[in-house]
Amino acid sequence: RRERQRFVDKNGRCNVQHGNLGGESSRYLSDFFTTLVDLKWRWNLLIFLLTYTVAWLVMASMWWGIAYLRGDLHQAHGDTYSPCVANVYNFPSAFLFFIETEATIGYGHRYITERCPEGIVLFLFQSLLGSVVDAFLIGCMFIKMSQPKKRAETLMFSRAAVISQRDAKLCLMFRVGNLRNSHMVSAQIRCKLIKSRQTPEGEFLPLDQCELDVGFGTGADQLFLVSPLTICHEINSESPFFCLSQRSLRNEQFEIVVILEGIVETTGMTCQARTSYTEDEVLWGHRFLPVMSLEDGFFRVDYSQFHATFEVPTPPYSVKE
């Protein structure tokens, strides 16, 4: 079949765009910090550079303006004349004084004199404004760098899901794995079935979401993810796949969204990895190849067989049949 549009890509990206917000777009400005963190890196760096550049130029212009209004730019700075800022004769020297003050470099050549109250007030304002800008922008960059999105890329899902018998029950199964040695604390997995349907009243529900039980009642959805695990959904009378058979699978249109959540052991931040399986990626009558082997004193995981499956005898009928 031709690949159809997904609700969630294999890499976990959601194919949903919000449009025609109208006046609701002002909500982004009310939470400007989160909006800034959510932007792409290139926009963050651009805002970071522009904010500091504009702030530096404005503050340097204010120092130059004070020197200009007092006439310090045209006077000789000596024992007979006390300027607002010593050794500030033009805009470059005013800019250098601002940078020395803001970065606490303090070369000692330029300094504020005690006969300039407006300079003292501007110095206090500059210190407060610099602290606020540094806290806002550096905090934003730190949070963006520490986001656990990259950690989700080391969590693997099998390319396909399989349907076969386990313990004499027909089950839908897929495999998850963790490529890092660091653990995912309190790892939990959830599954959603995305399928359009029509209610008995005639209402059409596009992309209706239905929960797939992967062991919520038994605690099997709480994972100890130190080695690849096969997640199992038992197809029974309460399952949305109760009437699904090998033949009807060819004509179905659905998408299974898998959500794996956990706490990154090294940072303590919550991480979420997502993937999805369409009806074309569900293999009837298949089982995953084993990837664990026992060696001298440890267990080895062969990730080259992580996605591999093999056929097993499986009834082509639905559980209802």
From TrEMBL:
InterPro entries: Ig_E-set (IPR014756), IRK_C (IPR041647), K_chnl_inward-rec_Kir (IPR016449), K_chnl_inward-rec_Kir3.1 (IPR003274), K_chnl_inward-rec_Kir_cyto (IPR013518), Kir_TM (IPR040445). GO terms for molecular function: G-protein activated inward rectifier potassium channel activity. It catalyses: K(+)(in) = K(+)(out). One of its GO terms (cellular component) is plasma membrane. The chain crosses the membrane at residues 45-66, 120-143. GO terms for biological process: potassium ion import across plasma membrane; regulation of monoatomic ion transmembrane transport. Keywords: Ion channel, Ion transport, Membrane, Potassium, Potassium transport, Transmembrane, Transmembrane helix, Transport, Voltage-gated channel. It is a multi-pass membrane protein. The record marks 134 as: Role in the control of polyamine-mediated channel gating and in the blocking by intracellular magnesium. Residues 155-320 form the Inward rectifier potassium channel C-terminal domain. It is found in: Membrane. Its main location: membrane. It comes from the Eukaryota. Residues 8-148 form the Potassium channel inwardly rectifying transmembrane domain. Pfam families: IRK, IRK_C. Belongs to the inward rectifier-type potassium channel (TC 1.A.2.1) family. KCNJ3 subfamily. This is G protein-activated inward rectifier potassium channel 1. It comes from Illadopsis cleaveri (blackcap illadopsis). The gene is Kcnj3_0.
